[in-house]
Amino acid sequence: MMRQSEVSEKITTALAEYLKRDPATIRADYHLRDDLGLDSMAVIELVYRLEETFNLQIPDEDLAGLTSVDHVVRYIEGRLKPAHASAKSAAQKPVASKTPPSKTAAQRAAASPTSSKNTKKRS
């Protein structure tokens, strides 16, 4: 059997804690209202827990699409994907840059045609 994703485990755990059930009894295909008995207020409370758990905000208009455990998992994974992708790419970047360091302000001023040496000659 395939191991549940970390997101799925956290969602199942949050549901189990809210419902005071064993997480093993909550299946991905369960409907939040029909199978788990969540009413509108319970879904809102669950969403609040998920927002805290995953550090994101779920807009009210997205609530209608969260009908089953699997829908919730896919929604949260989709919302987290951009954050994970940018974190992975940042982790893969080399620490040391191969580009030469930029000139300091003093070096740029000395190389500038309007440096203090050039202005003295004109005076």
Instruction: Summarize the amount of helix as a percent range.
Output: 40-55%
**Sequence stretches where pLDDT stays below 50 over 5 or more residues:** 94-106
The tally of strands reads 0
Shape: globular
* Largest sheet features: none
Order of helices and strands: HHHHH
Averaged pLDDT, please? 77
Taken as a percent bin, the fraction of beta residues is under 5%
As a whole number of angstroms, the C-alpha radius of gyration is: 27 Å
Secondary structure tally, helices: 5
The separation of the N and C termini measures: 85 Å
Give the structural class. mainly alpha
Your description of this structure?
- The protein has helices at 6-19, 40-54, 69-92, 105-111, 116-122.
- It is mainly α and 123 residues long.
- It starts with 5 loop residues before the first helix and ends with a helix.
- Residues 94-106 have low confidence and may be disordered.
In terms of topology, how is this protein built?
Elements: H1 6-19, H2 40-54, H3 69-92, H4 105-111, H5 116-122
Helix pairs in contact: 1-2, 1-3
